[in-house]
Amino acid sequence: MVDYNLGCTVRLDDEETLALLARLYEDGAIRHIQVQAVPLPRRLFRERLGRIAASGIPVVVHAPHHGHGVNPCAPAAYDDRPLAVIKAYIEEAMSRTLEAADTLGAETIVLHAGRYEPGGRFTAVEAFADFLDHHNDPRLTLENLPAVYAGYPLLGNTAKELAALAGTRITRFCLDFPHLACTANYRRLSFVDELEQFEGLNVALHHLSNIRCGSITDEHLELDHPDGGLDLAAVFARLRRHAAVPATLEYKEDSANVYARQVEVFAGLWAE
Q1: Helix (H, G, I), strand (E, B), or coil: what is residue 189?
Q2: pLDDT of residue 233
Q3: Where is the Xylose isomerase-like TIM barrel domain (predicted)?
């Protein structure tokens, strides 16, 4: 058994990647999976949950985010659906997320505060507080987001901002390394200094992939990507200091093929 708690991400409907991750788990190469609770028809949702539960792999659940139509801090931003439809959709999505966590025995539910329209940060902060008032679960774990993506701002980019958003409602946090690097590049901050600020938070999960050197855009690149610019020395120094905190790899394209190799890359970086 490896001396770190590494995991990989899989969508609820991605059976090919789940099969690969089950083999990696059986081999002892990973110790958990992060399940993206993407919206699915009810029957398919229950069927997929059953298959994941049957794998016996410990699970972290990732709640749907704005890419799935769930945008807590500004539900109607960048969305032309009627507001009543949006709100009903979010309620159903969060209900399914809690159901997934219950079924899979997940102790962690990763949450994004969301994106908002330029100039709307104050309103977004208030809306997110309202969201937490209506969705109060001790498993909710707030993740830091890049400062911007595709031209729109996102809420909760630094340790200080996450703490302010969480207030007393959320006590657990997810540190996403490439998101923090994108924020540091965009705001011209020191990545190492911003990383240090997370020592004051109760970080329950790490997210890891790579970004291009100097980039402000989160691309979920491989750890050994030739254009990678993430400060891996600083990242792995923190991972070793907090070896008991799970670290989840997150990739988007060709996941089944990418994860098999990236688990090995991670092991090599850890050994170094």
Answers
A1: coil
A2: 98
A3: 39-260
